[in-house]
Amino acid sequence: MRVSVGKWTKHKLMLEDERLASCLPDTQYLDKTSLNIMLDKYNQIMVKPCFGYQGRGIIQISSLLDEEFELHIERRKSFVNGKENIYDYLKENHFPRKRQRYIVQQRIPLATINNNPFDVRVMVQKKKDSLEWVVTGKLAKVAANNFVVTNVAKAVLSVEDAIEKSLINNEKIKDIVADLEEVSLLIAGQLANSYPQKRVYGIDLGIDLEGKVWIIEANLRPALSMFKLLNDGSYETIKSYKRG
After folding, report:
1. 20 to 30 Å CA-CA from 6: which of 46, 187, 215, 242?
2. In terms of domains, do 150 and 236 share one?
3. Residue 186 within any structural domain of the chain
4. Residue 190, CA distances (Å) to 15, 18, 44, 166 in order
5. Could you tell me if 157 and 231 lie in one domain?
6. Given this model, what pLDDT does residue 97 score?
7. How far is CA 233 from CA 89, 202, 228, in A?
């Protein structure tokens, strides 16, 4: 039976592994009840389409004073009064496809560079006829000004440069990079049984100020072009593995 490639399904698959579960943000399938529960638990949450791509349709909801909430999508902001009104507002204004399904997540407290959040893309691949997953490239994406997601990137850096430019303790760089690679390889191994035809994953990970690694997304059809910007040879390695 074909396994769904949606965010909710992949989240549940990763949750089965104890190490990966410790890196996953609190996540629920979105309905009015789960939205209100998450708003009670967290000051900031993220609403994401299960089948969205390139950051489209992602909404950050922030709790303000006096039961007012800020909704931030791309560069646009809107405000809703009363927690009970948010779900209906989303349905009317931000959910264009009736059949689209959504998840709601605890917002990952991403480290920033000059107040712009950044996350990490790790490419994990294997050759045809091989069982060994290999990290073939990694980079950091810095969100553009006034964006809450990094899919609209202001800059692409090496992971080490990004950590150095952030407020994360630089003494942790080697350990953080090792964690990023370990988690990415575990994700590929965990998802392999459900998606046996896949030989490439683009793993999006976050790092918080303490250096903890968080799982954002496992992309099954990741874009490669951003790796051209690094000039570190990773793009050529990725293309070589893709050929087989």
Report:
1. 242
2. yes
3. yes
4. 10, 11, 29, 31
5. yes
6. 63
7. 47, 17, 8
CATH code of the domain containing 173 = 3.30.470.20
pLDDT higher than 70, residue 87: yes
Residue 235, pLDDT score? 97
pTM above 0.90, yes or no: yes
pLDDT (tens digit per residue) in 93-131: 888 666 789 999 999 999 999 999 999 999 999 999 999
C-alpha distances out from residue 43 to 15, 79, 150, 164, 167, Å:
23, 15, 21, 28, 22
Torsion sign (Cα): 112, 221, 219, 104 = positive
Verify that 171 and 77 share a domain, yes or no: no
> If you average pLDDT over residues 179-191, what whole number do you get?
99
Local structure of 221: helix, strand or coil? coil
In a domain, 1, yes or no: no
Residue 9, pLDDT > 90, answer: yes
Domain span at 35: 27-106
Separation of alpha carbons 111 and 108, rounded Å? 9
DSSP at 10:
H
Q: Is the pLDDT of residue 1 over 80?
A: no
126 and 167 share one domain? yes
| Last residue of one domain, picked from the residues 69, 91, 106 | 106
How many domains, in total, are found in the chain? Answer: 2
Q: Distance between CA atoms of 205 and 202, rounded to whole angstroms?
A: 10
Question: In the prediction, which pLDDT does 139 show?
Answer: 98
118 and 223, same domain (yes or no): yes
Q: Residue 53 pLDDT more than 80?
A: no
Tokens of 170: 């630089």
Retrieve residue 212's tokens.
Answer: 């903890």
Residue matched to tokens 């990741």: 222
